[in-house]
Amino acid sequence: MYYRWEREDYGLPSNVTFDDSMRIMIIHNAKLEDSGTYTCHVRRGKSNTAKKTILLSVEAKPYFMFPLKNQHLDKGVKISWKCLTIAVPRATYTWYKDTKILTAVPGDYEVKGNVLTIESVDKQHEGMYQCRAENTHGVIFSSAQLRILSFPPSFSKHPVKSTVATEGGNITLICSPEGAPFPTITWQKDGSEMGLSVGSSNGKHIFMPNGNLIITQLSQSDSGEYTCTATNDLGSDTSSATIYITSKYNDIK
């Protein structure tokens, strides 16, 4: 008799051996990916053949495809953590904060199986979060810290810089304060509000979404002191710079 084994749609795993003249196939250290439909073909003589097919399903405790990662976020940001596992049978999930089971709180925590969402993070949400994945073969945990960044605006590292520019050109004043939550930005010229909103333009001035101010078609009237003010719910800070406009024509002597 002649025996031959095959697996539907795939070749045989590399971790197999055979015994008793190929009648017995042994899969060593079986893994999830060894699951499949296996067929043993038997041939006696030239034309007398038979076969037997079996379905092999390998089960295993959960393991994480992507463990949770620590998060450092501004106050007010929305966050979703997803617990991604491979498990047979399918895993069930439980979420914890500081070792206590988390349940859904409308408008605050949303718990849907392997996904935990916090609608608007605040200091009260800081702590250690864990996802527990469990099936009949075992339990695993993944943990991550959530820290909320919270400090008033400051220009100590990146003050607005004074500069010299030429008539007819353009210039960009960079306003890059630190602060958490990220501060709102306003601009003044010589102590007076410029009346611009973020992302707006009046044809002369462009207030960029990142807080920078672009001044186009420079003229002598654009000379002066420009002040960037950054404000969040923890405080405010200002930084000023002077713009000097020079003529594009040199005096002829």
UniProtKB/TrEMBL annotation:
<dbReference type="InterPro" id="IPR003599">
    <property type="entry name" value="Ig_sub"/>
</dbReference>
<feature type="domain" description="Ig-like">
    <location>
        <begin position="62"/>
        <end position="147"/>
    </location>
</feature>
<keyword id="KW-1015">Disulfide bond</keyword>
<feature type="domain" description="Ig-like">
    <location>
        <begin position="1"/>
        <end position="57"/>
    </location>
</feature>
<dbReference type="InterPro" id="IPR051170">
    <property type="entry name" value="Neural/epithelial_adhesion"/>
</dbReference>
<dbReference type="InterPro" id="IPR003598">
    <property type="entry name" value="Ig_sub2"/>
</dbReference>
<keyword id="KW-0393">Immunoglobulin domain</keyword>
<dbReference type="InterPro" id="IPR007110">
    <property type="entry name" value="Ig-like_dom"/>
</dbReference>
<keyword id="KW-0732">Signal</keyword>
<feature type="domain" description="Ig-like">
    <location>
        <begin position="153"/>
        <end position="244"/>
    </location>
</feature>
<dbReference type="GO" id="GO:0043005">
    <property type="term" value="C:neuron projection"/>
</dbReference>
<dbReference type="InterPro" id="IPR036179">
    <property type="entry name" value="Ig-like_dom_sf"/>
</dbReference>
<dbReference type="InterPro" id="IPR013783">
    <property type="entry name" value="Ig-like_fold"/>
</dbReference>
<keyword id="KW-0677">Repeat</keyword>
<dbReference type="Pfam" id="PF13927">
    <property type="entry name" value="Ig_3"/>
</dbReference>
<protein>
    <recommendedName>
        <fullName>Ig-like domain-containing protein</fullName>
    </recommendedName>
</protein>
